[in-house]
Write a structure and sequence with these properties.
The structure is a homodimer of 158-residue chains. Chain A contains 6 helices and 2 strands. By secondary structure, chain A is mainly α. Chain A has a two-stranded antiparallel sheet. At the A-B interface, helix 1, helix 2, helix 3, helix 5 and helix 6 of A face helix 1, helix 2, helix 3, helix 5 and helix 6 of B. The first copy, chain A, binds a DNA duplex (23 and 23 nucleotides) through helix 4.
DNA sequence: TATTGTTATACTCTATAACTATA
DNA sequence: TATAGTTATAGAGTATAACAATA
């Protein structure tokens, strides 16, 4: 007890939106990992499977466009899905350069299990928001994301 | 133009808080990286330097507690700071196991430059929020983070 | 020539485990 | 014995560049 050496200060960090976004995102990630033993899907992988459910026969390029990731990032992830029997990759007839991706029955089943956990986490978050706040939160996050992306791409164009 | 093959759907993802947190955080990270050429500090590294400014002579363990990272994650980051002349690490007199960390003048200067960019990014985000919304956003993020951490640690305790 | 996808490679962030030195 | 810090190592997530196949 002699040992509590002044509460350390975080300085201006707690007042930053960016810092709090990072903390919330990290908490969401860790929480989901903790409540999904035996599922072994990251949030990003869950997003990919969700996309494939909504867009059967999507190409890999369609995925990279939807999520803003590089094709070289995606390939090995899909290798893993394929090895685990969660998806099939077939050469598309109309353009034999592209892969037509599909969830297997096992992929759909795992996605359903994961979605239940994700939605339980969403419920947990919603439970600490007042009526109407959740919609406001989503809307604000959307606006903030758009503002940052717009400015970044404008800055990149000099 | 014959080529727009139906808008792909993201399914339920855009309705999830978690998905939007991830997107916003990633946008913040990328944006900051784009507007800080020549500074070479990640958001996490900026947090560390900010902490050291607010807590001179802090120990490494104090930092790991404040940010929830492992000591083995921190050591190499501090090696980098030290090599770049941003901090000093001295053995503490009162307990020679612990390091007393301090920003150098160069560290303070780089931190000040980075903080200006961070606060410009904050202003960009604030600009798309209505009066009062920023405080609401910070408060909601805080509540959500707390709810997730509480549930995760409760679940971990069986 | 341009596009789709794969692979080699590398960098960052994170952790666990084994270690040294101090307490 | 317990704690502070370092180091070896590994795994996830990301990217760039070079490549093969196809358009």
């Amino acid at each position: 007890m002699s040992d509590a050496p002044d509460q350390p200060s975080l300085g201006p960090l707690p007042g930053y939106i960016g810092y709090n976004l990072r903390r919330a995102q990290a908490a969401s990630f860790r929480h989901l990992d903790a409540v999904t033993p035996g599922i072994d899907l990251s949030p990003g992988q869950f997003s990919l499977l969700t996309f494939l459910e909504a867009n059967p026969d999507a190409s890999q390029t369609a995925i990279t466009r939807a999520f803003g990731i590089d094709k070289s990032t995606l390939s090995p992830v899909l290798d893993g899905f394929s090895r685990r029997g969660l998806i099939t990759r077939k050469r598309a007839a109309h353009d034999r350069r592209t892969n037509a991706l599909r969830l297997t029955a096992a992929g759909l089943a795992l996605l359903a299990r994961m979605r239940a956990r994700v939605e339980a986490q969403e419920a947990l978050m919603a439970a600490v928001l007042e009526p109407g706040e959740q919609e406001r939160l989503l809307d604000m996050l959307q606006r903030v994301t758009d503002a940052l992306e717009t400015d970044r791409t404008a800055a990149a164009a000099e």
